[in-house]
Amino acid sequence: MNKRFFLSEPHMSGNELKYIEKVFQSNYIAPLGEHVNKFEESIKDYAGAKNALAVISGTAAIHLALRVLGIGQDDDVLASTFTFIGSVNAILYQGANPVFIDSDKKSWNLSSKLLNKYLCECDKKPKALIVTHLYGQCADIEKIADICALHGVYLIEDAAESLGAVFNGKHTGTFGDFGIYSFNGNKILTTSGGGMLVSSNKEWIDKAKFYCTQAKEPFVHYEHLEYGYNYRMSNVLAAIGVAQMEVIEERVAKKREIFEWYREFLGDVKEITFMPELENSRGNRWLTAMIFAKSDYNKIMKALEEVNVESRPLWKPMHMQPLFSDAKSVVDGTSEELFNKGLCVASSTTMMKDDVKMICDVIKENICGTGGRT
Ligand SMILES: *Cc1c(COP(=O)(O)O)cnc(C)c1O
């Protein structure tokens, strides 16, 4: 049996242990240290972000953004419905109400049309929008940013999956008031767990830093006027991040190459449509995602599992989750259809072309209407 092909497994650059060694030599295991600063600098350099704050997770970064923006009890916060729960949990932490917006067909990400329609018609103006660049592919972010600016709605970009994705020459995460990245175990880069908050507003990042280190007022005895969190990233994990950032462009190139291999082997299969890429954008193709016109994806998933290949249905939209059965939503069936028809498939950057070919052969054997077995 071949080794397991995961959706997206950790892929070290080779320098991680060396930098961790340095951390140990300096004994700055925790809390902070030079690697935290270096990691933040590398994100700023790479993504063109003005200010960055390294924290324990992408979820924590979103939480800090909402807190700094003053979003609280009973405020409405718009969000992509087609996303992972980590995008929106923090709305609940703040006692606010999510309002979910559906995707459009041309990006599979948040529909700027539905967003604009809602903002023109709603009685209660939402305070913010959390837009996700799903599977590493850019949302129509310039248009979305314009609409938010027009209506006075703060924009938070959930770029957890899209580090390295660029829209019109500018990195995802840098269009909004805040952007967040994740370094969880399955993301394009990983620190085993971690996140980054970025913003062009220095005061906001300073405030987020204050909240994420227990909201200590500047007195030696630790005075407290507000409550905070313990969300700061450790120097050990930041050392991993510094080494990972050295290979970000390599990883993006490889993810995109893997996608091209899938397209080469499956592109002529009418049954299959791949997640699109907007004009003027370069996604990072974190996971290759596709929908099947008629085939039962459970059968395909099962067949892949039998040859030790991981695949997974596309994210179940938030408005369909029991947790959010009472939440407002603006939907037109797009994300529901994607969820009903789609899979993401093994896209680890350690994979070779032959691995992808083997996976594609299994997919082809298990779809209907193209000479497959059913
Ligand atoms: C992974 C992820 C998050 C959360 O990031 P963590 O670092 O795991 O907290 C948020 N949103 C999306 C879209 C993600 O994929």
TrEMBL record:
Cofactor(s) listed: pyridoxal 5'-phosphate
SUPFAM superfamilies referenced in this protein's UniProt entry, alphabetically: PLP-dependent transferases
UniProt catalytic activity: GDP-alpha-D-perosamine + 2-oxoglutarate = GDP-4-dehydro-alpha-D-rhamnose + L-glutamate
Gene Ontology annotations of biological process type: polysaccharide biosynthetic process
Keywords: Aminotransferase, Pyridoxal phosphate, Transferase
Domain of life: Bacteria
Segments forming a coiled coil: none
Pathway(s): Bacterial outer membrane biogenesis; LPS O-antigen biosynthesis
UniProt modified residues of type N6-(pyridoxal phosphate)lysine: K187
Enzyme Commission number, as recorded: 2.6.1.102
GO MF term (any one): GDP-4-dehydro-6-deoxy-D-mannose-4-aminotransferase activity
Record Pfam families: DegT_DnrJ_EryC1
UniProt cross-references to InterPro entries, sorted A to Z: DegT/StrS_aminotransferase, PyrdxlP-dep_Trfase, PyrdxlP-dep_Trfase_major, PyrdxlP-dep_Trfase_small
Active site, UniProt feature: K187
Family named by the database record: Belongs to the DegT/DnrJ/EryC1 family.
UniProt-recorded name of the protein: GDP-perosamine synthase
Organism: Sulfurimonas crateris
The encoding gene: pglE
